[in-house]
Amino acid sequence: MAWRIGVDTGGTFTDVVAVDETTGRRYVRKTSSTPDDPARAFTQGIVELLAEVGVGAGDVSFISHGTTVATNAILESRYARLGLIVTCGYREMLEVGRQTVPGEFGDITWWLKPPRVVPLELVREVAGRLNFKGEEYAPLDEDAVRAAAREFEAMGIGAIAVSFLHSYRNPAHERRARELILEVHPECFVSVSSDLIREYREYERTLSTCLNSGLMPLVTRYLGSLQERVGQAGIEARLYVMKSSGGIIRASEMAPQPIAAVLSGPAAGIVTACYYGKAAGHPDLITIDIGGTSTDICLVDHATPNMLTEGRIDVYDIKAPMIDMHTVGAGGGSIAWLAAGRSLRVGPQSAGAQPGPVCYSRGGTAPALTDAHIVLGRISPYLLGGSITLDAAAARRAIEEHIARPLGIGVEDAAMGILDLATNNIAQGINVVSVKRGRDPRDYALMAFGGAGGLNACLVAESLGIGTVIAPPSPGVTSAEGLLATNVRSDRVITDVQRDDALDVPRLVREFTSVYAQVLDDLAREGFSGTETAVGGFADMRYAGQAYEVRVPMHVRGTALDEAAIREAMKAFHRAHDDRFGYEYEGRQPVEIVNIGATGYGLFPPLVTAREERRDCAWSTARKALRRGVFRGAGEVELPIYERSLAPVGVDVDGPCVIEQYDATLVVEPGWRAVLDGGGQIILTHRHREV
Q1: What pLDDT is stored for residue 612 in this prediction?
Q2: Which has the least CB within 10 A, 112, 120, 321, 444?
Q3: Residues 6+ apart with CB under 8 A from 317
Q4: Three-state secondary structure along 140-192?
Q5: What is the CA radius of gyration of the chain?
């Protein structure tokens, strides 16, 4: 008997899912996160779940981890102090940046640039130059590299980034620089841009390399601590880490490239959502992952999320493949407060795991969204099977003191206002990934997960005119579950800008053959070969004059890329551009290939999925309590509380009601109807929008 374990570390809870590979039996556990030492909650959650299920440490064959360690380090500027070595004449690269002001109506007259990842005084220039073809124009000044490394060592700097001009075409200078640095400063963490990003745009490439270098000491220590503690628990399973692209990689391979995991946890949840959405007959989804501190939003077409070649974390543009998602500061721990004494706000500040919302009785004094939910009767005072007791009276006092009394309104009205604002914040985030990109959210089903996803789902859907909401089988641990449903992934890409009227097909074929071979090598290092692998090609294209690209697949058989496949990909580009932006210029504007690459997967055996068979009971069997609840438009009601594990399959229940389970709570609002399907998902439909 072999077991797979997925562990997702969030800001408030660490979620653990264990699955029996033979039977598909699933067990879940949530434990409070330990921000001071995330590895402690990771190990504690695994050990406690194994003990609860009665599984020996030797029966664990696989552990996959989604983590926010790298993300939080960037957001809180907790990465290591580092030095940067660049080509002569490019010392101010990070200072210049892209000269863009964030926001739709950015005003450069008041905007201040964020702190640079590497201050100017820690940037060193060295002679040596490649031309745009990657040909050596001037040799690398090796003495200057050694001198810079010695200087950084003397300053106590233990991380160095190297980014030379045009190294994406030829990595020789950067790789030699790394050798020289390690000769002089052998304990140093070194990142070179050509190992991470074989694409042009030197600012994003350099910034990402700097962040990677600064994260390496922290992430290396963290992953080392995980492996040590897991070993002490007697578990010898291989440890994997989720990448922002939706694939996993061995922890030992992740340590040199932590920038690839900046959206590790949220990516896993989207992988699961795609699977369940397709199974429920809703491959077109908008997903909301509502946790303790934030909500991650993603638009999914045909069970496939859009992929980005770069993304933004806080104020930094990061060059790494990642699932396209948008984050808003609205979660269960989001703090309610009054701006200028009279205007109610919710977030982005969060109570997090410590001290948490007031109702957690851990020292929190500012009311949070969770406090509003308990005042309105939407959640039970006993969470996680009774392991956490919530103080509803304390939550009520906090909302009264900080919100209701200053505004001169009742406590329930104040709590409803908090809920409405959080709902609006999430709805506005959904508009960013849908309406602002030419998509109508009413054409999608809403997949809600995360510990707080089911609490706001119907309200968010109703505000946007969405008629269907899906709650997966284990909403509170969906990201942890996704860690078990994904495969090892490798992405390789190289920049070669070519116009469609002057294609050098033999050169593109050589480059594709090269990246294809690199992907196979990556998968071989992970232990996959032959039928255990799947590799596909892609190209990033744009219309001449554009500054952004759209990624389209190239349908090739093995490495057999030819001009026909390239031309077919260009036709697909026109369709993809029109689909994403609402227009295309086929036949009117030249097309440029910017990057060509390959994505490969190391395929694990698929997990067995158990089906729901509870067909001979009614919702009355699942009802366990009545509770006072308050709803807008319905006022105070006697609210039926149902246990999800006892719910019947294929039988409707009308809201308002609450469906509870160990890891999450689902609120069925007035006007909504819920039914449990055979796959274990609850499908909610608005009765006024049913066809």
Answers
A1: 56
A2: 112
A3: 98, 203, 204, 207, 310, 311
A4: CCHHHHHHHHHHHHHCCCCEEEEECCCCCCCCHHHHHHHHHHHHHCCCCEEEE
A5: 26
Would you say 368 and 292 are in contact if contact means Cβ atoms under 8 Å apart? no
Question: The whole model's pTM is what?
Answer: 0.86
Vertex 371 angle, CA 12 and 369, to 5°: 65
Give the 3-state DSSP-derived string for 292-339, with helices as H, strands as E and coil as C: CCCEEEEEEECCEECEECCEEECCEEECCCEECCEEECCCCCEEEEEE
DSSP secondary-structure letter at 506?
H
Q: Are strands 388-389 and 550-554 parallel, antiparallel or unpaired?
A: unpaired
Quote the DSSP letter at residue 114.
Answer: P
- Closest by CA to 263, choosing from 225, 314, 216, is 314
Domain ranges of the chain: 3-74+220-261, 77-216, 334-421, 496-602
Both tokens of residue 150? 């010695």
Residue 193 and residue 207: Cα distance in Å, rounded? Answer: 9
Which long-range CB contacts under 8 A does 406-413 form with residues at least 24 apart?
Answer: 406/338, 406/341, 406/342, 407/338, 407/342, 407/344, 411/375, 412/375, 412/376, 412/630
Topology, domain 3-74+220-261: Nucleotidyltransferase; domain 5 (3.30.420)
Q: Is 237 in contact with 245 (CB distance < 8 Å)?
A: no
Count helices and strands in the chain by DSSP H and E runs:
18, 37
Tokens of 1: 């008997």
Average pLDDT over residues 199-211: 92
CB 561 within 8 Å of CB 512: yes
For residue 466, what are its two tokens? 């969405």
Q: How far apart are CA 596 and CA 469, in angstroms?
A: 38
Query: Binning pLDDT at 50, 70 and 90, where does residue 356 land?
Result: confident
Give the tens place of pLDDT for each residue, 259-318: 998 888 788 899 899 989 998 999 999 999 998 888 999 999 999 898 887 887 777 888
What tokens appear for 43 in the block?
A: 């190990």
Q: How confident is the model at residue 691 (pLDDT cuts 50, 70, 90)?
A: very low
Lookup: tokens for 9: 């570390």
Long-range contacts from 30-36, C-beta under 8 angstroms, 24+ separation:
30/384, 30/451, 30/476, 30/477, 30/662, 30/663, 32/353, 33/9, 33/353, 34/353, 35/11, 35/352, 35/353, 35/354
Give the angle 515-516-518 at the CA atoms, nearest 5°: 60
pLDDT level of residue 225 (50, 70, 90 thresholds): very high
Does 459 have pLDDT greater than 50?
A: yes
Cα separation, 660 vs 642, in Å, equals 6
Topology of domain 77-216 in CATH is: Dna Topoisomerase Vi A Subunit; Chain: A, domain 2 (3.40.1360)
Beta strands in 465-616 (DSSP E): 468-471, 488-499, 533-543, 550-554, 591-602
pLDDT at residue 609 in the model: 66
Strand-pair category, 591-602 with 311-313: unpaired
Contacts of residue 16, defined as CB under 8 A and 6 or more positions apart, other chains included, come to 5, 6, 7, 28, 29, 30, 31, 45, 46, 49, 477, 480
Inter-axis angle of helices 202-232 and 38-53, nearest 10: 50
